[in-house]
Specification:
It is a single chain. The protein contains 12 helices and 12 strands. The protein is of the alpha/beta class and 282 residues long. The strands form 3 sheets. It has an 8-stranded parallel beta barrel with strand order 1-2-3-4-5-8-9-12, surrounded by 4 helices. It has a two-stranded antiparallel ribbon with strand order 6-7. The chain has a two-stranded antiparallel ribbon with strand order 10-11. Strand 6 and strand 7 (150-151) form a beta hairpin. The longest helix has 19 residues, at 111-129. The radius of gyration is 19 Å and the shape is globular. The relative contact order is 0.13.
């Protein structure tokens, strides 16, 4: 069974204010045994705190986020400039996976650009594999768009066979593909799974107000803008079937993630997701 963890992007502000180790203690208190580090600087202070979390709390640093090359506004190391540091961090933290958070926008601009990006990923994946580290990439809905009839997911898989996948089931759903179909089709290359629910909110008040003012176009746009990231178990995803399917597909980690908590304390959201997953045996 996959190890249950949390995507620490949810807690980046907590790390900034409370410090890494106190946040790790809170995570462990929730009965969560693994973390994926993203959008948090891997400086010496945070890396040392992660090592203490391993030694004192029994936490598993399941994956670290990296970029292929510099240029993103998101803080973090990139494989072009920081390869040796990334490898050293992984060895220090006993981490077997690093993950790229998304295909860069520039690589989505054309089939040729996407192929060029995938080739760079293949080179990086091979270099990391020689160090005992697996490179994965995390999808969004756009990865299900097509160039000449071929999904970005399939193009990347074809051009970069050494690259594995971190499948975000919410974004698969939003991209219009059944998550169960995705897990079946990509069995064997889905080492990491992002677990978050897909919720459709009620019709917003602003949509009704716009309609009353005669702004039908604005009202309809607000009506469409009702998709939310949700705590696991509070949306429409079929987790009793999805989680066993993800295990069968070869998942090693399930990371709870919620891109927006809509004003709720992220620890409370994580606790709700954790409680639901515990009810399913995780």
């Amino acid at each position: 069974m996959a190890v249950l963890g949390v995507q620490m992007m949810m807690l980046k502000d907590k790390v900034s204010t409370l410090g890494m180790y106190p946040v790790l203690q809170r995570i462990a208190d929730l009965g969560i045994t693994a973390v994926e580090v993203s959008q948090i600087p891997m400086d010496e202070e945070n890396t040392a705190a992660l090592r203490r979390g391993i030694d004192r709390l029994g936490l598993d640093v399941g994956a670290l986020s990296v970029m292929l090359e510099p240029g993103s506004a998101t803080p973090g190391d990139n494989l072009r400039d920081h390869f040796d540091k990334i490898v050293a961090d992984c060895h220090r933290l006993e981490t077997r996976f690093v993950r790229i958070g998304m295909v860069p926008m520039a690589a989505m601009a054309s089939k040729e650009a996407c192929i060029a990006w995938a080739r760079e990923c293949e080179d990086a994946a091979r270099r990391l594999a020689a160090e005992g580290i697996t490179l994965c990439y995390h999808n969004h809905h756009i990865d299900l768009s097509r160039f000449d009839g071929e999904r970005i997911f399939d193009l990347v898989r074809r051009v970069a066979p050494s690259l594995q996948f971190e499948v975000d089931l919410f974004w698969v759903q939003r991209g219009g593909m059944a998550p169960l179909d995705m897990l079946k089709e990509y069995a064997g290359v889905c080492q990491l799974i992002h677990v978050k629910d897909y919720r459709v909110a009620s019709v917003p008040q602003k949509a009704l107000e716009m309609l009353a003012r005669g702004d039908a176009a604005g009202s309809y746009a607000a009506f469409l803008d009702t998709i939310q990231f949700a705590e696991v178990g509070s949306g429409n995803m079929n987790w009793p079937e999805l989680l066993p399917a993800a295990n069968a597909a070869g998942a090693e980690y399930f990371f709870i993630e919620q891109d927006d908590t809509y004003g709720r304390d992220p620890f409370d959201c994580i606790a709700d997701s954790r409680a639901y997953l515990a009810s399913l045996g995780y």
